[in-house]
Amino acid sequence: MSRKQVTLVDIAEVCGTSKVTVSKALAGKSGVSDELRKKIFETAEEMGYVPVKSAAVTETIGVLIPEKFINPNGSFYWALYNSLVQRLKEENISCIQENLTTEEEENLILPNFLAGKKAGAVISLGQLSREYIGKLSDAADQLLLLDYYSPDIDADCIITNGFMGGYKLTSYLISKGHRKIGFVGTRLATTSIFDRYMGYMKAMLENNLPMNDEWIIDDRSTTNELFDKITFPEILPTAFVCNCDETAFKAIRDLKAAGYSVPEDISIVGYDNYLISEISDPPITTINVDSKEMAELAVTTLLERIRNPRLPARTQVLSGRLVIKNSVKQL
């Protein structure tokens, strides 16, 4: 294998560890044992790995976020974006962030940093339409999709295991005695919501539990415009799996406004484990998504892509862990 072709993934496979761990070890970061760090360094040297920094990566990275995903009071995507900025800063690489309006997406208007040739490599954070992703892919030198994937585009993708997350959340509710469980999230709005719904469905089917169509509730339009209020049916299940913490927060708010108490009357779980899940009353049981780990993997993957554009495109999946708080009642 030539020096030019060796990647962090190659080193990780030889050492029996993850790409993120290899990146941390080579960057001198904490969280890696001395023994494993030594093995990684020795393996990298033996394989002829050339660090990304030595590959003269000087271009600016553009980060594109759909405006509809940006909550003025903060969101998971803001946390993820901040982690990206910090990670790029460590590589001495500039970052230009731009919000994309719904109108710009519908009219296939490219971000200014691409139209003005200010950035060549792009991180797309938050699902875009297939048509827009296609145009973005044609215009960008390198493109990485973060927190979603597209079967039509041959691009690197970093996602969380939404299927397993939805399965864990539903299984946890079942373990707490719940048998009537609904799902809040517009299933076809994003790949991540659909994956979490499929995990919910798997857990329900495995336990021979009925899925009532009235308990599958939309939280946004199919173009990802979030609803101000979640509309619940007259007859409720004992618990809801929500596709994200923001939706779980709204569900708790709207159920309380309708006279219900969480979790005494109905249990709620979410996904992401960012700030809103903690300030909620009650705090929301959720799946933790490590934004720093996602940013680490996104940046190292994109820099490898810049260094070696011939690498095959990869979809890399990060697992999340269940974080138990106070929004679920034992039946």
Summarize the structure in short.
With about 325 residues, the chain is α/β, with parallel strands linked by helices. The protein has 3 domains: about 50 residues, 434 Repressor (Amino-terminal Domain); about 130 residues, 3-Layer(aba) Sandwich (Rossmann fold), CATH 3.40.50.2300; about 130 residues, Rossmann fold (3-Layer(aba) Sandwich), CATH 3.40.50. It has 12 helices and 12 strands.
N-to-C CA distance? 58 Å
Please report the first level of CATH classification, the CATH class of the largest domain.
Answer: Alpha Beta
Number of strands: 12
Uncertain ranges: 53-57
Q: Report strand %.
A: 15-25%
Query: What topology, given as strand order, has the largest sheet?
Result: 2-1-3-4-5-11
CATH architecture label of the largest domain = 3-Layer(aba) Sandwich
Spatial extent as radius of gyration: 21 Å
Q: What integer is the average pLDDT?
A: 89
Indicate the structural class. Answer: alpha/beta
What is the CATH fold-level name of the largest domain? Rossmann fold
Helix content: 25-40%
Overall number of domains: 3
Regarding quaternary structure, how should these chains be classified? Answer: single chain
* Number of helical elements: 12
What characterizes the major β-sheet?
6 strands, parallel
**At the fourth CATH level, what is the homologous superfamily of the largest domain?**
Response regulator
